[in-house]
């Protein structure tokens, strides 16, 4: 699980990123990014709705895969950003290593890697 300091917690945090953030699309998810006015650690949130799959186990697997990808790369991401991963239905058909590769590519495309 992602450490508490790296998580978006409140509804206001999520709404701010969704409304004011810039969105990058990949095959499995959209990545919404918002630059905060501080240099604290980057924070992340994951949205995996029932539109993705009716089965909770499939949604949880997708969320865990995204979570693991961020956990391994969080120390390489620039500080001061809030990010939300908006899952697409195809994510339930992908393996964790494919999702991790896609997360890294998306973060590089968004120029968030140090």
Automatic annotation (TrEMBL):
EC number from the UniProt entry: 3.1.26.5
Gene3D superfamilies assigned: 3.30.230.10
Keywords, ordered alphabetically: Endonuclease, Hydrolase, Nuclease, RNA-binding, tRNA processing
Catalysis performed (reactions): Endonucleolytic cleavage of RNA, removing 5'-extranucleotides from tRNA precursor
SUPFAM superfamilies named in the record: Ribosomal protein S5 domain 2-like (SSF54211)
Any Gene Ontology biological process: tRNA 5'-leader removal
InterPro entries assigned to the protein according to its UniProt record, in alphabetical order: Ribosomal_Su5_D2-typ_SF (IPR020568), Ribsml_uS5_D2-typ_fold_subgr (IPR014721), RNase_P (IPR000100)
Gene Ontology molecular function: 3'-tRNA processing endoribonuclease activity; ribonuclease P activity; tRNA binding
Top-rank taxon: Bacteria
Enzyme class name: hydrolase
Cellular component, GO annotation: ribonuclease P complex
Family membership: Belongs to the RnpA family.
Function as written in the Swiss-Prot or TrEMBL entry: RNaseP catalyzes the removal of the 5'-leader sequence from pre-tRNA to produce the mature 5'-terminus. It can also cleave other RNA substrates such as 4.5S RNA. The protein component plays an auxiliary but essential role in vivo by binding to the 5'-leader sequence and broadening the substrate specificity of the ribozyme.
Xref: NCBIfam families: rnpA
Subunit text: Consists of a catalytic RNA component (M1 or rnpB) and a protein subunit.
UniProt name for this protein: Ribonuclease P protein component
